[in-house]
Amino acid sequence: MEKIMDISLELYKVFYYVASSLSFSEASKQLYISQSAVSQSIKTLEKKLGRTLFIRNTKRVLLTAEGEMLLSHIEPAIHLIQKGETLLSENTTLQGQLRIGASDTICRYFLIPYLQRFHKEHPDVRIRVTNQTSIGCAQLLRDGQVDFIVTNSPNSHLSPAYPAFPIFQFQDVFVANPSAFPLQERALTFQELMDYPILMLSRSTTSEYLYSLFSNRRLKLIPEVELSSNDLLIDLARIGLGIAFVPDYMLTEMRDLFCLSLQEKLPPRQLLLTRQELLAPAAQKFLEYFHS
């Protein structure tokens, strides 16, 4: 077992701030200590390590190759410590922020009641919702811009590295204006659906799913309209421009429309909540709504 050097965390902390700013004076301001104390700490660290970490001249400070290597290991450690301190400080008075990624449809028709409840119970927490498609939400999660996302499943863009669990089951439906498409008394096949103008979302998990439904039956779907909004699809279906493919939890908005019957029942899908491994207390508290 390798022997651990007797070097205090404070020395590494001073090194991190100097290396990050490449300035002894800036590091002294951030650490609230004198510049001479910063300089002495760096000299002590270099002596203990037996390595020169900085190249100093009258104009600027540069990292040596050894300094850059050390920074690559110290930086993530400092960030983890800062994250832990933040979690502890937020744990006493549920403050901070809640960062969520979801599509406009999921947010409007599913998440709003949960957000309303959370805001009422924890008014000091800032709620930030980033609106993206389910595909875009997967990227938000990978980039660390959100605590968790709620997306349609299946979603091939999600990484298995992130914890995930289903929170809601829904059914996709084809809806139409009965005056424009008097099909209430018929149960259509997928082949027969090809004879009608299909209105669907553009690049999304839902469009991938719908294309696969037709492709699995050796049919090539050519939609009449592709849009980025389910609400707009409903509006176009309402004026008779085509048959829209939408989730059934939007049914409250489908006045003057009816759901087509199919000879093959569509399999249900799920809303999936996928989250970061390490969560702030605000995000942990919000997730409790789905575990009760």
TrEMBL record:
<dbReference type="InterPro" id="IPR000847">
    <property type="entry name" value="LysR_HTH_N"/>
</dbReference>
<dbReference type="Pfam" id="PF03466">
    <property type="entry name" value="LysR_substrate"/>
</dbReference>
<dbReference type="Pfam" id="PF00126">
    <property type="entry name" value="HTH_1"/>
</dbReference>
<dbReference type="GO" id="GO:0003700">
    <property type="term" value="F:DNA-binding transcription factor activity"/>
</dbReference>
<dbReference type="InterPro" id="IPR005119">
    <property type="entry name" value="LysR_subst-bd"/>
</dbReference>
<comment type="similarity">
    <text>Belongs to the LysR transcriptional regulatory family.</text>
</comment>
<keyword id="KW-0238">DNA-binding</keyword>
<keyword id="KW-0804">Transcription</keyword>
<dbReference type="GO" id="GO:0000976">
    <property type="term" value="F:transcription cis-regulatory region binding"/>
</dbReference>
<protein>
    <recommendedName>
        <fullName>HTH lysR-type domain-containing protein</fullName>
    </recommendedName>
</protein>
<dbReference type="InterPro" id="IPR036388">
    <property type="entry name" value="WH-like_DNA-bd_sf"/>
</dbReference>
<feature type="domain" description="HTH lysR-type">
    <location>
        <begin position="7"/>
        <end position="64"/>
    </location>
</feature>
<dbReference type="InterPro" id="IPR036390">
    <property type="entry name" value="WH_DNA-bd_sf"/>
</dbReference>
<keyword id="KW-0805">Transcription regulation</keyword>
